Amino acid sequence: MEKKQELYSGKAKSVFATDDNDYVVLSFRDDTSAFDGEKVEQLSRKGEVNNKFNAFIMQYLSDNGIPTHFEKLLNATESLVKNMKMIPVECVVRNVASGSLVRRLGVEDGMELNPPVFEFFLKNDALHDPMINEYHIETFGWAKAEDVNKMKDLTFKVNKLLKKLFADAGMILVDYKLEFGLFKGGVYLGDEFSPDGCRLWDAETRKKLDKDRFRQGLGGVIEAYEEVAHRIGVPL
Ligand code: C5P
Predict the structure, then answer these.
(1) Sheet strands (E) in the chain
(2) With a 6 A CB cut-off, is 198 part of the ligand 1 pocket?
(3) Is the model's pLDDT at 1 over the cut of 90?
(4) Angle between helices 145-167 and 46-63 (to 10 degrees)
(5) What 8-state DSSP symbol labels residue 69?
(6) How many A from CA of 18 to the centre of ligand 1?
(7) Phi/psi class of residue 191: alpha, beta or left (left: φ > 0; alpha: ψ in -120 to 50)?
(8) Mean local confidence (pLDDT), 11-21
């Protein structure tokens, strides 16, 4: 598989073409951003940690019946994935109230949510990723109704699997964001799953082990990501 020209560069990852149109190379950079790209810093080792973390989670989800774009690890910072048409919608599940939910609704940070809350957001930095619902997605043609249902269903299945994976390693999966894409007509989990796109707290101390450390300037960002990786058995 030969790596070719860069197709797209996001805030933390770049996508490169290959000599096979069905596959692209996902390259994880050290760039770390928050607040719709307003705060950006380079955090040494982040690309490598997130690439390996994501590979481990995607493989675990694939092994447990979730269709994902992940094919294989190529090197420390790159993975081979399916060349999907991405759906511009973020799927968020919340098991515990935190972040924008607390700001929006004034509920208590740390409150357990039963049943978990599901939210859709439009992936659009200029508009600050506004919250949307099924009607917006269908009316504006961002995805077909049946694919919206699949995204929702898969996001909840991922919750069941990952809540347990992290709980068994002494952590609470507070919330997370997933993105999906279309490949040969099917809906597949895309983008990445890493501490950049979820909230994870130590179950006993409630210490934050995710990107909130970067957002809130708490320090020890990559050290926390590495701790999570070690606890769940990601080979770094
Ligand atoms: O900011 P908010 O509380 O809505 O985020 C919910 C979850 O989705 C968090 O785990 C956050 O890291 C993730 N997220 C993300 N990318 C975004 C928005 C949220 O990974 N653009």
Answers:
(1) 3-9, 13-18, 23-28, 31-34, 39-42, 70-75, 78-82, 85-96, 112-122, 131-132, 171-183, 186-189, 198-202
(2) yes
(3) no
(4) 110
(5) S
(6) 30
(7) left
(8) 98
Asked if 3-82 and 85-220 have one fold, the answer is no
pTM summary value: 0.98
Domain coordinates of the chain in residue numbers?
3-82, 85-220
The reported pLDDT for the residue numbered 77 is: 98
Pocket lining: 197 vs ligand 1, CB cutoff 6 Å: yes
Q: For the segment 60-83, what is each residue's pLDDT rounded down to a tens digit?
A: 999 999 999 999 999 999 999 999
Residue in the structure block whose two tokens are 């507070």: 174
The topology (CATH level 3) of 85-220 is D-amino Acid Aminotransferase; Chain A, domain 1 (3.30.470)
Question: Is CATH 2.170.150.40 correct for 3-82?
Answer: no
